[in-house]
Amino acid sequence: MSFFKKGRNVFLICCLLFAAGVHAAELKLEAPENGAAAELRLSAERKFLENDVLRSETPEWMDSEMKRFAAYVQEYETEMAQAKQEGRPPKEMRDPAVRFMFFANNEWAKALMEEYKEERKTFRPFRWRVSGNVSDVTVWFSETKDFAKTLREPVPQNEDGVPETCILPTGLRLGTKYFWKVTARDESGKEIVSEIREFTTNSEGPRVLYSPLVMNFRDIGGGRNADGRKVRQGLVYRGAALWLPEETRLVRGSLDAEYRYFFQEVLGLRTEFDLRGEGEAQRRFELGEIPLEKYGVLRSCYPLHGYFPELDRNQEYLREIFHRLASDPEVYPMYFHCAGGADRTGMLGVLLDGVIGRDDQTIRDHYEFTSFCGHARYRFSRLAAEMFRKFEAYAPGEPIRVQVVRYLESIGVPREEIEAVRSAFLEEE
After folding, report:
1. Confidence bin at 6 (pLDDT 50/70/90)
2. DSSP assigned state of 165
3. pLDDT tens profile 294-322
4. In the chain, N or C terminus with fewer CB closer than 10 Å?
5. 414 CB-contact burial (10 Å; exposed 0-12 / middle 13-18 / buried 19+)
């Protein structure tokens, strides 16, 4: 072979190798570092839970608001009596809505909520780098290095149809060691796989599932109770109804696949406890709310009235709820909600936290955490303070967990059912 032919062949081979190198797709994990701790909570949420203002006695500004509300109540009762005496309908009077005052008047709280909104848009702690054109990008998590049992996170595309290179996982548990990797397909359809890394999630609760599909979605489990016992995760979830604004649905199109993946594959939900009245729920379904029954979840309706544990109706439904939680293992995993996951859901959340045996601070923190979802709730607000005072009447001076158990016993929930629910939530160590 002539020198020129040899040179030409070498040149062609080099060109082919270069072209192959240019077009070869590759995935490289970037964050978190291998073996590092992975923080899944937003910094705004940490600040909220650590702030001493929220752990103090009733602040002075709230005292003045409560006095203002007391004056309103007196005026309202006087008007009701006069209207009845004169045989006329009462005048419309505006409730000063003291329960929202902290977030309306406190500059620190308002700034924190704005920080949360901005951080929520960009918080994507798992990142990787892509070279070449790829499709079908999926992130895989597993508690074992062989990925025998996995949690998959499909990766969305940006506005240009290119797969994103970062995610905020929705299903990871607190205080758990995971292995993770990214897979994709190159232009030829061949699967490419990144290296495998390991990390450990933060152990402090609450466990928030940052799904864009459901508002105010949290796990009742996670962390430890006041006795130091670990609280089982993945058993009971709380949140809002499956309602998205019409403009969101129009932009995103059908959400069936995403909902089915989240509720069936990630959570494995079996039952739904809807705390709304049947009429309220049906009206929302007619307006576009998505029924969980569509995804194989068995729905039960327990129409509670938030903040009023003394109501006969509430007591009847609470007896039914705790009986099912205590006697039917097939009820788990369960999801309970009202409309926004704040008031009715908040009251049942306090009761469950009390039965689990959490300390007072954690119970109140979990109640207030709803504030991050646009439903400002504050432990010293009128309705919340009244609810906690009603529980306190059953065991004055005792922790909330004791007060809650005494309350449940007083309305007819058997002690053995309370213990059964507690046992279901607490891990053996």
Report:
1. low
2. S
3. 889 999 999 998 878 888 889 999 999 99
4. C
5. middle
